[in-house]
Here is the input.
Amino acid sequence: MSTVVITGGSRGIGAAAVELFTARGDRVYFLYEKEHAAAQALAEKTGATAICCDVADGQAVRAAFASIPEVDVLICNAGIMHFGLMSMMEEAAWDRLFAVNVKGIYHCVNAAMPAFLRKHRGCVITVSSMWGQVGASCEAAYSATKGAVIALTKALAKELGPSGIRVNCVAPGVILTDMCATVDPEVLADMAEEAPVGRNGRPEDVAKAMAYLADAEFVTGQVLPVNGGYIM
Here is the structure.
């Protein structure tokens, strides 16, 4: 049984990961910020432990990890998005996007590091996006954060590999979560048609990719696209 920590675990991809890893028999702790009712319901359903924590707050992250047994697998899934022209974006919104999507990984990896180093073993899985690979119009800030996640993943894999720690990334495409709630259904349908597999993704598709990376002991520094072939 592994101890798995999943950030952004109360909904969407994170919730699917909580369900999958608990079903595998792992001891799962998940961090969430605002969705108290959803987090409680998921904890009752799966037996996972929910911890309210803003990953952008380093002190809160350290306090959360102090209550968790030594971590084996850390899944840095917490993320927010912003849609709109960069020229119209407030600086505070830009800073918040980077604080959650990038600095949150910094806080969580450093909080898990003592356990990883003591055991000379550990696994970190980050979550980027296909827009972190190729960029998206009107999602410049989001694309920038997700590109940073990819670069950070590769750098950490090189830095931490000698200590027995693997670091990999999943890069989801169009996944039908509440992040897509404001997207025109016709646009979603067109994107599904453009994907070679002929559909958009489900949260479970990404969770399964995370489970693969958690088990793949000879894989590190890789970005696993989970986009149905939308970009190759």
